[in-house]
Specification:
- One of its GO terms (molecular function) is kinase activity.
- This is Death on curing protein, Doc toxin.
- A two-stranded antiparallel ribbon has the order 1-2.
- It is mainly alpha-helical.
- It has a single domain (about 35-135), classed as Fic/DOC protein, Fido domain (Four Helix Bundle (Hemerythrin (Met), subunit A), Up-down Bundle).
- The protein has helices at about 10-25, 35-50, 55-70, 75-90, 100-110, 115-130, and strands at about 95, 130-135.
- It is globular.
- The chain is about 65% helix and about 5% strand.
Length: about 140
């Protein structure tokens, strides 16, 4: 069992979305508040009911949720990668994939015709392959 991770708050997610839209364009706003809260709560659910969940699975819960739930009016594919990266960073991991490689993977994942389980597992595996643990300086 891992130590309880530092999750992403609704406020943090909305701030990330605002920054993404300001930098890259698009329509600002939340399309579905219920799906947004569900996506934010999913990693907490996994940790509570599946305490053996890896940090990579918890990160994938954010990423896959934003990818498939379309919580925002625009920028959902950008949000999934940003949420994964931010969550990992808050928990002392770094996503090492290049921006091009990550964008290519997430675009492929978004367009794939596969079951939820297969897509989620593929994302979890990709994150595990492309994340490294950072050494803490205490």
């Amino acid at each position: 069992m891992i130590e309880e991770p530092k999750g992403l708050s609704s406020k943090a997610i909305r701030s990330i979305q605002d920054i993404l839209i300001a930098r890259t364009g698009g329509i600002a706003g939340i399309l579905n508040p219920t799906l947004l809260e569900s996506t934010i709560d999913k990693p907490k659910f996994f940790f509570q009911y599946e305490p053996e969940s890896s940090i990579f699975k918890l990160a994938a819960a954010y990423g896959y949720g934003f990818l498939k739930n379309h919580c925002f009016c625009d920028g959902n594919k950008r949000m999934d990668l940003a949420a994964v990266s931010t969550f990992l960073r808050k928990n002392d991991y770094l996503l090492t994939a290049s921006e091009v490689e990550a964008a290519s993977f997430f675009l492929d994942l978004a367009g794939a015709i596969e079951t939820y389980e297969d897509g989620f597992e593929r994302l979890t595996d990709w994150i595990e392959k492309h994340a490294i643990k950072l050494e803490r300086e205490d």
